[in-house]
Amino acid sequence: MMHSNLHIRAKAPLRLSFAGGGTDVAPYLEREGGCVLSATITRYSWGTLTPRVDDQIHIESADLGALFYFDTRSNLVYDGKLDLAKAAIRKVGDPQGKGFDLFLQTDAPPGSGLGSSSSLMVNLIGLLREFKGLPLTDYETAELAYQIERKELQIQGGMQDQYAAAFGGFNFIEFNADHVIVNPLRIHRDTSNELEHNLLLCYTGKPRANDGIIEDQVERYQHHEEKALEGLRHQKALAVEMKNLLLQRRLEDFGAKLDEAWRFKKQMSPKISNPHIDEMYEAARRSGALGGKITGAGGGGYLLLYCEYEKKHKVAEAIRKLGGTPTEFSFEFHGLQTWRRNGYTRNGHR
Question: Are 66 and 23 in contact (CB under 8 A)?
Fold first, then answer.
């Protein structure tokens, strides 16, 4: 028998970013400091780690329909196949230790703009820290996830997603050259209920293409392009302003500010929007949305819209006509969670 009957499980939430996205990307955060307002939702990356009694490591990704086999001494090569898992194992795994089986699944595809890749990385670190008994804090878990994704794997992007997944809930996160501060917001239940009531999350019909949006944004900042600079600085100011509106429960003003956040986000790079997204957004506004924005780097993924509730169904109809898919969601107030399950499943498989 190659398995133990212990299963280590983890789930880490995906997130919606309301304002400040882009200011969490180097070199802007190092020079001027960034801040982001975000909240996690009831969509997750899921993982199970089952220890083995030999030195084999088996990884199965339900999203990719992929299986990968190697042993603990293997020199893992990054080749585009399950690189997130390989990098986590290289950095947190134990080359002399016992093997394990990993099963991974995510509620949204990469490029969705909901931070799914970083959520999965945080999930992997959660599983491995539990397996090895590592005393990592939320901050250390998020920082390690950032280092592995952005430095080790050289995946372009910011810092907000790893911290959102590790901490969960509504957060105002400040980024500086040498430290990050997560400020959890005490959002009244009435406020989160009203937001769920009025917000509409719409899949635009295609994931974000990896077409250099973040690289383009960084380049424009480094060349001191006025519009890009103004866009970033305004994003930062809006994150502060929208955080205050949330805490004051001024939700219609908050919804209208999403429109401003979107207009300034588009200034950071012409690749952030496209005619399809613009058409969808304008149709939503005409149908009763007060404001909205793309939830990730841009170019595709999910559009988040704040509607007057009585017009929400009309906004949803307008989005459907243009090939989008409106979806409901709830907020999640917990970050990364790990737990253990002992024993067999009903059919005897572990």
Answer: no
d(CA 163, CA 245): 22
Q: Taking the model in full, what pTM does it have?
A: 0.91
Considering the candidates 83, 101, 161, 259, report the single residue annotated as catalytic.
Answer: 161
Distance CA 299, CA 274 (A): 6
Instruction: Please give the domain boundaries of the chain with CATH numbers for all domains.
Output: 6-186 (3.30.230.10), 189-327 (3.30.70.890)
Give the residue from 130, 126, 223, 207 showing the smallest Cα distance to 167. 126
Active site residue 178: no
**Tens digit of pLDDT for each residue in 200-247?**
999 987 645 555 656 665 666 565 667 777 778 888 999 999 999 999
Q: How distant is the alpha carbon of residue 174 from its chain centre?
A: 16
pLDDT tens digits, one per residue of 8-56: 999 999 999 999 988 898 888 888 899 999 999 999 999 999 999 998 9
* Nearby residues of 106 by Cβ (< 8 Å), 6 or more positions away: 44, 45, 46, 63, 116, 119, 120
Instruction: Note whether 326 and 318 are within 8 A (CB).
Output: no
